Amino acid sequence: MAPKTVLITGCSSGIGLALAVRLARDKQRRFQVIATMRNVGRSAALAAAAGPALGRTLEIKQLDVCDEGSIRACLDSIPGRHVDVLVSNAGVGMVGPLESQSLAAMQSLMDTNFFGLVRLVKEVLPDMKRRRGGHIVVISSIMGLQGIVFNDIYSASKFAVEGFCESLVVQALRFNVAISLVEPGPVVTEFETKLYEEAERADYSRTDPETAKIFTDLYLRNSRDVFASLGQTPEDIAEHTLRVIEAARPPFRHQTNVAYTPMAALKHADPSGALVTDAFYKLVFKYDAVLRFGLRAIRLLRWKSRKVKAGVRLLGFK
Ligand SMILES: NC(=O)C1=CN([C@@H]2O[C@H](COP(=O)(O)OP(=O)(O)OC[C@H]3O[C@@H](n4cnc5c(N)ncnc54)[C@H](OP(=O)(O)O)[C@@H]3O)[C@@H](O)[C@H]2O)C=CC1
Ligand SMILES: CC1=C(/C=C/C(C)=C/C=C/C(C)=C/C=O)C(C)(C)CCC1
């Protein structure tokens, strides 16, 4: 069978980079990867990770999801504009109290995370519909299902992504085009480091001291612990995304982190919203010490299981 052409956005780092490499180095050579990024000057890490796949099963192209012209130019450069799988991955984060965030920064985030997806779909879907085949895979987030304190704007952008896809999927199916949402929890990438750097630089002078203290002393501290204990690697997300891409009947939603499934389930268990709001309130303000203790125990267990696996490898059993 001819390899599938997969176009991925945001491949200069993190999940996009890991997925591009995973697909391009597929042993069965099932994929031809077009790894795109807004600034090709940042392609060194991808080129190094791709190794001999570069120029064979992987090519790097410029694409800025905030620029319709750049999306069109990229697609026009592909023979027949033929894309079998579009992976909309490019995205940015934002945390902190609302009062310390400018409207311009919020609009810019929406422009990347939501309108970036809309621009891509507007450009790719008509070709897929004409061909009566294709797959649009969107890297959403667990925060597209459940908001998390101090992630108001980021979460809203992912809810927008989810609403857009949920609405579009039925029409797309009529044309044999599949849409899938991949919903990771925390993933240890530059995304996390950029958030903490921004939080360091932010101006909290418009935020009341009590809110600023809750953000720095409770949220940031716990968030670091959450990433350290429950965070997945970009390679984990690449494996999950591969499973979604290769599925004979692609799922509409795919969560990558089982630790977050109960959180999403609480919302559906109680339509009034009281159950989930109450649980989060207690986790943040009442049982934060219990939360930290639990997270530390998970870190210890993960560390031990890594040691055991390393021991098994060392003894030559695997
Ligand atoms: N890390 C996490 O905890 C989670 C991340 N996600 C989602 O995963 C996706 C990838 O994030 P992740 O890999 O973690 O983070 P990274 O910061 O490592 O990667 C984000 C990528 O998006 C690119 N990007 C940003 N703006 C644009 C743009 N206008 N046009 C094209 N590319 C752009 C960045 O490019 P550049 O180098 O030029 O900035 C970078 O390549 C995002 O959609 C994010 O919301 C979902 C759940 C959890
Ligand atoms: C679970 C949880 C927390 C933090 C969760 C975080 C930090 C999740 C990050 C998810 C990401 C980064 C998704 C990206 O799209 C709190 C509020 C600390 C305490 C309450 C329980």
Automatic annotation (TrEMBL):
Gene3D superfamilies: NAD(P)-binding Rossmann-like Domain. The active site is at 154 (proton acceptor). The keyword Lipid metabolism applies. It comes from the Eukaryota. Substrate binds at residue 141. GO terms for molecular function: estradiol 17-beta-dehydrogenase [NAD(P)+] activity. One of its GO terms (cellular component) is cytosol. Residues 4-185 form the Ketoreductase domain. InterPro entries: 17beta_DH, KR_dom, NAD(P)-bd_dom_sf, SDR_fam. It holds the Pfam family adh_short. GO terms for biological process: estrogen biosynthetic process. SUPFAM superfamilies: NAD(P)-binding Rossmann-fold domains. This is Retinol dehydrogenase 8. It comes from Pipra filicauda.
